[in-house]
Design a protein that fits this description.
Strand order of the largest sheet: 1-7-6-5-4-3-2
Order of helices and strands: EHHEEEEEEH
Strand content: over 45%
Number of strands: 7
Oligomer: single chain
Radius of gyration: 15 Å
Structural class: alpha+beta
Distance between the termini: 44 Å
Shape: globular
Number of helices: 3
């Protein structure tokens, strides 16, 4: 059984892709206001918002419990509207050796599709794949869309 994996979730949104991308890049501290049931807090822990290397501290509710995470912006591609986060601390690292989240917004005509991709390595074969986290990201995307319009 392999310990490494990849999961992908896509959500079509009505909000313009640029707006969604910029929210995650430059204003993630607004996300708790847009989805308070899922994300309670987001603060800059280190660096400057919207730049590679900056670290964000998150408080969120997942799988029926309060969780914490620190994410480091690993890469930003303005042209492709993508941001890659590396999980550097928090609850998920009790289960995974490495965990990367890529957020990409694709615009084709009037359609805007948010794609969440997670790539991970489990600490043991007994650890479940992060399927519930993918559902979390889909719900979070819809909450942001509903409250941002």
């Amino acid at each position: 059984m392999t310990l490494s994996g990849k999961r992908v979730a896509q959500v079509e949104i009505k909000t313009k892709g640029d707006v969604f991308h910029n929210l995650w890049k430059a204003n993630p501290h607004h996300i708790p206001n847009l989805s308070p049931a899922l994300v309670q807090n987001c603060q800059t822990h280190e660096g400057e918002l919207g730049t590679v290397g900056s670290v964000l501290h998150w408080n969120y509710f997942h799988d029926g419990k309060d969780c914490v995470a620190k994410t480091k912006i690993h890469a930003i591609d303005e042209e492709k509207k993508s941001i890659n986060f590396q999980l550097v601390d928090g609850d998920f690292l009790k289960l995974y050796k490495s965990f990367y989240v890529n957020l990409h917004v694709d615009t084709k005509g009037s359609k805007h599709v948010v794609t969440w991709t997670v790539e991970y390595e489990k600490l043991s074969p007994n650890v479940l794949d992060p399927d519930t986290l993918m559902e979390f990201y889909k719900r979070l995307t819809k909450d942001i869309e509903t409250n941002h319009l």
